[in-house]
Amino acid sequence: MGNARTMDDVFSAIGADLRAALDRDPAARGAADVILSYPGFHAIVAHRFIHALHRSGLPLLPRWLSNVNRFLTGIEIHPNARIGRGFFIDHGMGVVIGETAEVGDNCTIYQSVTLGGTSLSRGKRHPTLGNNVTVGVGAAVLGNITIGDNAKIGGGSVVVRDVPANATAVGVPAKIVMKDGVAVSAAPEEETWSWVI
Ligand SMILES: CC(C)(COP(=O)(O)OP(=O)(O)OC[C@H]1O[C@@H](n2cnc3c(N)ncnc32)[C@H](O)[C@@H]1OP(=O)(O)O)[C@@H](O)C(=O)NCCC(=O)NCCS
User: Fold this and answer.
1) Residue 185 pLDDT grade (very low, low, confident, very high; cuts 50, 70, 90)
2) For ligand 1, atom 34, which residue shows the shortest CA distance?
3) Does the pTM exceed 0.90?
């Protein structure tokens, strides 16, 4: 996962990122459109090289370059974040991906998503996303939690617990509303609240 070791890996991942934008954005008008006009694509391309520099042990420069990347795209990705192939950041402004975040293959995130930490300790403190995960606009996924393969996180949600594979989680704090294509009913106390309101 997000573990490019050679320049071949980097270029191969970038090719997959380009295809991801073309496949997942109905507004994309072709490769030139994405290459010229998609800040989410620019940010992940830059990150692939910055991450390779970071893995080589180079001090300071990767962090500075990621700051330049943020200045140019509005997307902040820590050089250490491990991001799988076929990653698509749509729109992108305000996205933050923390130092120990891990993202599987073929994930999609929208503007203002945070993959953030909840702890000040230096260890693993950011989320791990499986493959084919979608995180909706403005969602915050916080802490050393795992979002399973094919999971969907609703726009505006705040996720602080693991989400299983093939589930949809929405709300603040996020609750599972769908699992394996079947609606999951709310807990009794939540039904009471909707009745009171
Ligand atoms: C979470 C999401 C993927 C669910 O889509 P879906 O599988 O079609 O599910 P539904 O729309 O049938 O919603 C299922 C339930 O969750 C609720 N829900 C859906 N999205 C929600 C959200 N973001 N916040 C709170 N509740 C939400 C629905 O109201 C519905 O509740 P109900 O069963 O009580 O009526 C989708 O709503 C979403 O938020 N996608 C993000 C898209 C995005 O970020 N777009 C940005 C484009 S710029």
Assistant:
1) confident
2) 177
3) yes
